[in-house]
Amino acid sequence: MTGRRTRLTALVLAALLAGAARGAPAPARVVSESEVHEVAGGLRCVVCQNLSVADSPSEMARQMRAIVRERLEAGESPGEVVQYFVDRYGEWILLSPRRSGFNLLVWAAPLVAVAVGLAIVSVLVRRWARAPASSGTALPVDPAMRERIRRETEAER
Amino acid sequence: MSRRPWRWLIPLAALPVLALLAYGFRVDPRAIPSPLVGRPAPGFTLTAFDGTPLGLEAQRGRVVVLNFWASWCYPACYEEAPVLERSWRAYRDRGVLVVGVDIQDTVEAARKFMRDFGLSFPNAPDPTGKVSVDYGTYGVPETFFLDRRGRIRAKHVGALTDEVVRTHVERLLAEPAS
């Protein structure tokens, strides 16, 4: 009698354990909150303006953080998790554009603008620095010009 | 210094900036083209409000109107709910399936919404938000039109009108099944 009961209990326990194991699979690896934060911090919160998924208190962002955690726990790399979102939302979901292809223009344009600006300033500065030196020696006023200036200033009076 | 004949060209430098602004101000920054259009619709299995399983796998060969909504989405979802119900009744005999996915909602509020509008097409809650993220939704309402081969062919953001549904559904119905 007791033997049968122990066997029954053992069976029930085993079934329960198996069920628990099936219901909540152990994560392939342990994922820290900061790992989730890092991935979520690069994703745009889709329901708010200019907030990351890590910073938004919205329900949607909370669900997206849960998805990030779940995918990381399943063994995906942070890059793969980000790609999952990019595949569905486009690169718009990324808070900073990727440094590749056409996007390089966005990264390069400010540097190019600064370089061009520096070049223009240096050319102008050199030209201004030269100007007073040349004006002293050059521009000899010939008699005809002197005569014209005299005539015109007198006409002014 | 001598006169520079190309000086009049300087204002031309403003042209690219003006062109960029002219383009930028005409484009809605919140209208983001979905990368999913043209791709196979992500599969899902949800449990409908009536307890039956709801998925797309069994629906191959049917044109599907997949609508994401929420009871708190006022007024757009309230405007389009009658449109969806009308479309379901008009097209169900022609093999069109209307499916509603309720996101970020409470079951009670969602049930009341469905009761108020007399929705008779299958609806399911998406408690984890996985389906809505799988479809790249960033708000409600959003509607996807799936062809008979299970590919996403169009996405509509905002309230549906009879005209929008008719245009997409008739176009997809006119296509051969395979």
Q: Kindly name the structural category of chain A.
A: mainly alpha
Largest interface: A-B, 15 and 17 residues
Strand order of the largest sheet of chain B: 5-4-3-6-7
* CATH architecture heading of the largest domain in chain A: Orthogonal Bundle
Series of secondary-structure elements of chain B, N-terminal to C-terminal: HEEEHEHEHEEH
SSE layout and pairing:
The complex is a heterodimer of chains A (157) and B (178).
Chain A (H helix, E strand, L loop, with lengths): L1 H22 L9 H9 L17 H15 L4 H12 L14 H34 L5 H14 L1
Helix pairs in contact in A: 2-3
Chain B lengths: L13 H13 L18 E3 L5 E3 L7 E7 L6 H16 L4 E8 L3 H11 L5 E4 L3 H5 L7 E5 L5 E6 L4 H12 L5
Parallel strand pairs in B: 3-4, 4-5
Antiparallel strand pairs in B: 1-2, 3-6, 6-7
Structure description:
The complex is a heterodimer of chains A (157) and B (178). Chain A is built from 6 helices and no strands. Chain A has 157 residues and is mainly α. Chain A folds into 2 domains: 2-96, Orthogonal Bundle (Helicase, Ruva Protein, domain 3); 103-156, no CATH class. In chain A, helix 2 (33-41) packs across helix 3 (59-73). The longest helix of chain A has 34 residues, at 104-137. Chain B is an alpha/beta fold. Chain B is built from 5 helices and 7 strands. Chain B has helices at 14-26, 76-91, 107-117, 130-134, 162-173; strands at residues 45-47, 53-55, 63-69, 96-103, 123-126, 142-146, 152-157. In chain B, strands 5-4-3-6-7 form a 5-stranded mixed sheet. Chain B starts with 13 loop residues before the first helix and ends in a 5-residue tail after the last helix. The chains are: A mainly alpha (157), B alpha/beta (178). The A-B interface holds A 46-47, 59-60, 63-64, 66-67, 85-90, 92 and B 32-36, 104, 128-130, 132-139.
